[in-house]
């Protein structure tokens, strides 16, 4: 390859080419103004990815700024590779959730695998050893012809990557809805732990310091991946398969070990992974944050393919690569570590005082433009938005004509796609490697992973109820945060902070932008009220195909802490004779909000009404009460009330433990009390000898608690006899997904 | 008891093995890097789980040819006890320390779950603390655990007491699921002829403390400490 051959491949830079690269006419004019000339082909490529929605957050930034991001526990909020939170004893937890939606739809195995790889790098680049992965998945209707293939590929990809790198995948959530037929969501979260005095940031410093490239070689994969993720899908999107990257978890595992080993030395000034927009965003962000320039000479950069152009190298999204600024003279120390781990290591440039990004190769300069003006000029839009009209609540007339036996209804619900056991999925993930996992998936409301070498543990959950968010983005956003907070409290953890993964449709449509704005408002209100700040996040817009948007899905990843992993309580009933208590508002008298409930959708066939409102003060009071009981050792089993309402919650606890329940608390109640999805509630099982104590404490705390029954037998039963056997529920619950996946297309 | 754990690029359960050995023996095991050609003087060598070299060739095939494995084989020939777990089982089998081969799981999927096993032979330092026929629970986490050998060899392994563990279901505990990977004759783990080498797919090292939900793996390490101290 030569300069001449490179030029022969380049296309003339025009407004048309800029449009093809995803820049609007106005954005292109802006680029011309900043440079005072026509950009080179390489520069145009770099500007277009820097200003893409994916990298610039241009539609969302103005709203994300309104979120609460601080608190005494927060060491580093949004803006770095991941959020950092203090967990005491000089330890920090570092975490983030990120989407890989578009690639996963086009190539599910590699799309999902590289999603896991990318989020792992965001966490270990800050100095943390990853201790847990989670994921939040949304697929289209099970009847859609692509769904089975997508489920199969995504799950295999997540497992293939996470299992190999040796980070346990400890939980997650999976929903199905026709709104995701053309745009599935694959949101992956990694949690790591580090010492608070050994956290690494990305701001470059030190003029002349060497810029080092480590990890895999660069190929042509993923070029313009960030641009793809910033546009709607159309019929021909599958032709974009070549823009999906290919993952190599083995190299990632080596990269984790090598980076952590290098971090034990004092050689690093700054470090950042090459994620979306690869070398472009890593070099520009590092230099930009340090207020410096950076000069790269790409001839010595490790390449997987021949005859690559500077444009291709700068835009490649090849995986498992990191950019490091070293202290002067530490190249040999660093190289020895990467040699040991058999990874590529190359000094590819140095920091300068020019403030410019300079790219040299084949003896010529292909890019020489000022970083700050280009970064600062990244567009920021306050897009027009319309608030989502409020839906009205449903009255009892929706139940007209419903006369099914309770046992039949429960069996149907337990076999419906959203409530069916996801064992088929999570048994493909190694959830135990590391030896610090407290619960297998499905056994607790939040995953509990011990901090290696210590007794304390981190609790992790991911939550969002997209059908609530569609009906009312503000309440839905609140609910997603509240449920994460509740799930952490339900295992006995103190909730610390969240990461938000905002998945929405096309922000250029005021209705969609209104969903985003509403969700951010709800999330912000809940975070403030619950002292549960946002420390990292990711926005994925344009999740639309042929104009059909997904359900608004602000997935929330919550993290909490507990002093001892063994304090944690799971959902399973653990023996007969325990008293089953409902904690939470018993207006009506046990609640009964049926709008947007699973019962309404699955049994009555309607998706309507307002979602259950969230009273954040009640949420906090009830959660603090439950956590306190668990910390005092008074609780045997604990489960928050979510999809399906109280009766489904109890049945899940029974199934998890193989112990039934004799229920007396529902006698004479309306069916909406059984299935209503009112918020801020928990079901607990406590030993009979402490039941009175618990009730006294509840009264003192002003928390409504009522007795629903006791653990007994191998079925759900009441004064009228058996409602449904656990065997029948289990068959429905465990059967759906394996049968679905085994069926012929 | 002194123990060494061999670490390959891509090993990922060495920390679990360190924790289990240290908890039971009170002594930190040596970690030996795959490029080393010498092993310290030890009573037990553990080849841990993971994805050595990414398992991009047949699982364990690359690691079996790494320099340190020549030394492991030489020590095994001298009677030093060798425990290969999961990828370690694949590696020592590929290296010829045990007969047979590990193939892709029958269902073609990775499987991670707590699995019931029956202890088949207790005449070894690995299994002496169990009762013959005892049902224990160890987690499994593998994609290539489908043990295969020909019928004649299965018969010989049974006859010579070389089958260490078999997968079983447990109706009593509402977990009827046995063999998770399609392995021949439900074999989960085997010994060499002298019962000084044990290879098994399940992870006893992830069942040694209350946090793991059960401690059925602990007697394996206690038996080793008792026999080798």
Automatic annotation (TrEMBL), chain A:
<feature type="binding site">
    <location>
        <position position="540"/>
    </location>
    <ligand>
        <name>substrate</name>
    </ligand>
</feature>
<protein>
    <recommendedName>
        <fullName>Phosphoribosylformylglycinamidine synthase subunit PurL</fullName>
        <ecNumber>6.3.5.3</ecNumber>
    </recommendedName>
</protein>
<keyword id="KW-0547">Nucleotide-binding</keyword>
<keyword id="KW-0963">Cytoplasm</keyword>
<feature type="domain" description="Phosphoribosylformylglycinamidine synthase linker">
    <location>
        <begin position="16"/>
        <end position="58"/>
    </location>
</feature>
<dbReference type="GO" id="GO:0004642">
    <property type="term" value="F:phosphoribosylformylglycinamidine synthase activity"/>
</dbReference>
<dbReference type="Pfam" id="PF00586">
    <property type="entry name" value="AIRS"/>
</dbReference>
<feature type="binding site">
    <location>
        <position position="98"/>
    </location>
    <ligand>
        <name>Mg(2+) 1</name>
    </ligand>
</feature>
<feature type="binding site">
    <location>
        <position position="121"/>
    </location>
    <ligand>
        <name>substrate</name>
    </ligand>
</feature>
<dbReference type="GO" id="GO:0000287">
    <property type="term" value="F:magnesium ion binding"/>
</dbReference>
<feature type="domain" description="PurM-like C-terminal">
    <location>
        <begin position="207"/>
        <end position="359"/>
    </location>
</feature>
<keyword id="KW-0479">Metal-binding</keyword>
<dbReference type="InterPro" id="IPR041609">
    <property type="entry name" value="PurL_linker"/>
</dbReference>
<dbReference type="Pfam" id="PF02769">
    <property type="entry name" value="AIRS_C"/>
</dbReference>
<dbReference type="Pfam" id="PF18072">
    <property type="entry name" value="FGAR-AT_linker"/>
</dbReference>
<dbReference type="InterPro" id="IPR010074">
    <property type="entry name" value="PRibForGlyAmidine_synth_PurL"/>
</dbReference>
<feature type="domain" description="PurM-like N-terminal">
    <location>
        <begin position="79"/>
        <end position="194"/>
    </location>
</feature>
<dbReference type="InterPro" id="IPR036921">
    <property type="entry name" value="PurM-like_N_sf"/>
</dbReference>
<comment type="subunit">
    <text>Monomer. Part of the FGAM synthase complex composed of 1 PurL, 1 PurQ and 2 PurS subunits.</text>
</comment>
<dbReference type="InterPro" id="IPR036676">
    <property type="entry name" value="PurM-like_C_sf"/>
</dbReference>
<feature type="binding site">
    <location>
        <position position="273"/>
    </location>
    <ligand>
        <name>Mg(2+) 2</name>
    </ligand>
</feature>
<feature type="binding site">
    <location>
        <begin position="99"/>
        <end position="102"/>
    </location>
    <ligand>
        <name>substrate</name>
    </ligand>
</feature>
From TrEMBL, chain B:
<protein>
    <recommendedName>
        <fullName>Phosphoribosylformylglycinamidine synthase subunit PurQ</fullName>
        <ecNumber>6.3.5.3</ecNumber>
        <ecNumber>3.5.1.2</ecNumber>
    </recommendedName>
</protein>
<comment type="subunit">
    <text>Part of the FGAM synthase complex composed of 1 PurL, 1 PurQ and 2 PurS subunits.</text>
</comment>
<comment type="pathway">
    <text>Purine metabolism; IMP biosynthesis via de novo pathway; 5-amino-1-(5-phospho-D-ribosyl)imidazole from N(2)-formyl-N(1)-(5-phospho-D-ribosyl)glycinamide: step 1/2.</text>
</comment>
<keyword id="KW-0547">Nucleotide-binding</keyword>
<dbReference type="InterPro" id="IPR010075">
    <property type="entry name" value="PRibForGlyAmidine_synth_PurQ"/>
</dbReference>
<feature type="active site">
    <location>
        <position position="205"/>
    </location>
</feature>
<dbReference type="InterPro" id="IPR029062">
    <property type="entry name" value="Class_I_gatase-like"/>
</dbReference>
<keyword id="KW-0315">Glutamine amidotransferase</keyword>
<keyword id="KW-0658">Purine biosynthesis</keyword>
<dbReference type="GO" id="GO:0005737">
    <property type="term" value="C:cytoplasm"/>
</dbReference>
<dbReference type="GO" id="GO:0004642">
    <property type="term" value="F:phosphoribosylformylglycinamidine synthase activity"/>
</dbReference>
<keyword id="KW-0963">Cytoplasm</keyword>
<comment type="function">
    <text>Part of the phosphoribosylformylglycinamidine synthase complex involved in the purines biosynthetic pathway. Catalyzes the ATP-dependent conversion of formylglycinamide ribonucleotide (FGAR) and glutamine to yield formylglycinamidine ribonucleotide (FGAM) and glutamate. The FGAM synthase complex is composed of three subunits. PurQ produces an ammonia molecule by converting glutamine to glutamate. PurL transfers the ammonia molecule to FGAR to form FGAM in an ATP-dependent manner.</text>
</comment>
<feature type="active site" description="Nucleophile">
    <location>
        <position position="86"/>
    </location>
</feature>
<dbReference type="Pfam" id="PF13507">
    <property type="entry name" value="GATase_5"/>
</dbReference>
<keyword id="KW-0436">Ligase</keyword>
<feature type="active site">
    <location>
        <position position="203"/>
    </location>
</feature>
<dbReference type="GO" id="GO:0006189">
    <property type="term" value="P:'de novo' IMP biosynthetic process"/>
</dbReference>
<dbReference type="GO" id="GO:0004359">
    <property type="term" value="F:glutaminase activity"/>
</dbReference>
<dbReference type="GO" id="GO:0005524">
    <property type="term" value="F:ATP binding"/>
</dbReference>
<keyword id="KW-0378">Hydrolase</keyword>
<keyword id="KW-0067">ATP-binding</keyword>
């Amino acid at each position: 390859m030569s300069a001449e051959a490179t030029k022969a491949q380049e296309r003339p830079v025009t407004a048309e080419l800029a449009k093809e690269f995803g820049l609007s006419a106005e954005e292109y004019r802006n680029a011309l103004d900043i440079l005072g000339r026509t950009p080179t082909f390489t520069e145009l490529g770099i500007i277009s990815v820097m200003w893409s929605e994916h990298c610039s957050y241009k539609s969302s930034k103005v709203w994300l700024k309104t979120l609460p991001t601080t608190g005494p526990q927060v060491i580093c909020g949004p803006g770095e590779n991941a959020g950092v939170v203090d967990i005491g004893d000089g330890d920090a937890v570092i975490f983030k959730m990120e989407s890989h939606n578009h690639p996963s739809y086009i190539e599910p195995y590699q799309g999902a695998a590289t999603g896991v790889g990318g989020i792992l790098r965001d966490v270990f680049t800050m100095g943390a050893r990853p201790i847990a992965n989670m994921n939040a998945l949304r697929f289209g209707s099970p009847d859609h012809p692509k769904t089975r293939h997508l489920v199969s590929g995504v799950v295999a990809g997540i497992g293939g990557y996470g299992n190999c790198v040796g980070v346990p995948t400890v939980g997650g959530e999976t929903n199905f809805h026709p709104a995701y037929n053309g745009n599935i969501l694959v949101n992956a979260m990694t949690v790591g732990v580090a010492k608070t005095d050994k956290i690494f940031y990305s701001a470059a410093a030190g003029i002349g310091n060497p810029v080092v490239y480590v990890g895999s070689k660069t190929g042509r994969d993923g070029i313009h991946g960030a641009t793809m993720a910033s546009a709607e899908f159309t019929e021909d999107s599958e032709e974009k398969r070549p823009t999906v990257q290919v993952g190599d978890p083995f190299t990632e595992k080596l990269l984790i070990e090598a980076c952590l080993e290098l971090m034990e030395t004092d050689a690093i000034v700054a470090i950042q992974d090459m994620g979306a927009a690869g070398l472009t965003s890593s070099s520009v962000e590092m230099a930009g944050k340090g207020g410096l320039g950076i000069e790269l000479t790409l001839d010595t950069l490790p390449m997987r393919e021949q005859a690559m152009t500077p444009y291709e190298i700068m835009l490649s999204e090849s995986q498992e690569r990191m950019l490091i600024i070293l202290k002067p003279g530490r190249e040999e120390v660093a190289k020895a570590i990467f040699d040991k781990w058999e990874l590529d290591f190359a000094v590819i440039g140095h920091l300068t005082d020019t403030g410019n990004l300079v790219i040299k190769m084949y003896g010529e300069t292909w890019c020489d433009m000022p970083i700050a003006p280009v970064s600062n000029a990244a567009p920021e839009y306050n897009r027009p938005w319309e608030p989502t009209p409020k839906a009205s609540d449903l009255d009892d007339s929706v139940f007209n004509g419903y006369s099914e036996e309770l046992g039949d209804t429960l069996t149907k619900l337990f076999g419906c796609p959203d409530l069916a056991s996801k064992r088929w999925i999570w048994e493909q993930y190694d959830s135990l490697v590391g030896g610090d996992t407290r619960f297998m998936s499905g056994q607790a409301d939040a995953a509990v992973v011990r901090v290696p070498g210590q007794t304390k543990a981190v609790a992790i959950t991911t939550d969002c109820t997209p059908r609530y968010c569609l009906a009312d983005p503000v309440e839905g956003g609140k609910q997603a945060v509240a449920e994460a907070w509740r799930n952490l409290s339900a295992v006995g953890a103190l909730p610390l902070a969240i990461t938000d993964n905002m998945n929405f449709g096309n922000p250029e449509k005021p209705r969609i932008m209104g969903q985003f704005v509403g969700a951010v408002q709800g999330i912000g209100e809940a975070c403030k009220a619950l002292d549960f700040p946002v420390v990292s996040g990711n926005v994925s817009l344009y999740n639309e195909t042929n104009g059909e948007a997904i359900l608004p899905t602000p997935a929330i990843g919550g993290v909490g802490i507990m002093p001892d992993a063994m304090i944690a309580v799971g959902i399973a009933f653990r023996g007969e004779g325990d008293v089953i208590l409902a904690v939470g508002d018993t207006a009506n008298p046990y609640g009964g909000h049926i709008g947007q409930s699973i019962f309404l959708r699955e049994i009555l066939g309607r998706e309507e009404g307002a979602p259950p409102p969230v009273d954040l003060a009640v949420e906090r009071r009830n959660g603090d009460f439950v956590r306190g009981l668990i910390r005092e050792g008074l609780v045997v089993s604990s489960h928050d009330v979510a999809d399906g309402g109280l009766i489904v919650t109890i049945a899940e606890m029974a199934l998890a433990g193989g112990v039934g329940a004799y229920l007396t608390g529902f006698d004479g109640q309306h069916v909406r009390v059984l299935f209503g999805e009112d918020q801020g509630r928990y079901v607990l099982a406590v030993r009979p000898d402490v039941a009175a104590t618990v009730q006294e404490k509840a009264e003192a705390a002003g928390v409504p608690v009522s007795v629903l029954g006791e653990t007994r037998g191998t079925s759900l039963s009441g004064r009228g006899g058996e409602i449904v056997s656990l065997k029948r529920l289990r068959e429905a619950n465990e059967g759906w997904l394996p049968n679905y996946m085994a069926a012929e297309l | 008891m002194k123990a060494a754990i061999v670490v390959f690029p891509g090993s990922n359960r060495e920390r679990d093995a360190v924790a289990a050995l240290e908890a039971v023996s009170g002594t930190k095991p040596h970690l030996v890097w795959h490029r080393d050609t010498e092993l310290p003087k030890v009573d037990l060598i553990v080849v841990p789980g993971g994805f050595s070299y990414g398992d991009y060739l047949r699982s364990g095939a690359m690691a079996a040819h790494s320099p340190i494995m020549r030394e492991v084989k030489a020590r095994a020939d001298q009677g030093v006890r060798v425990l290969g777990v999961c990828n370690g089982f694949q590696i020592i089998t590929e290296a010829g320390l045990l007969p047979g081969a590990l193939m892709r799981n029958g269902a073609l999927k990775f499987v991670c779950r707590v699995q019931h096993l029956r202890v088949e032979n207790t005449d070894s330092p690995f299994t002496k603390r169990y009762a013959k026929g005892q049902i224990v629970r160890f987690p499994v986490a593998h994609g290539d655990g489908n043990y295969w050998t020909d019928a004649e060899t299965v018969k010989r392994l049974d006859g010579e007491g070389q089958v260490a563990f078999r997968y079983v279901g447990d109706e009593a505990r509402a977990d009827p699921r046995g063999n998770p990977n399609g392995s021949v004759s439900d074999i989960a783990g085997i010994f060499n002829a002298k019962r000084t080498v044990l290879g098994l797919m399940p992870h006893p090292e992830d069942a040694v403390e209350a946090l793991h939900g059960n401690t059925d793996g602990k007697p394996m390490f206690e038996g080793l400490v008792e026999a080798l101290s």
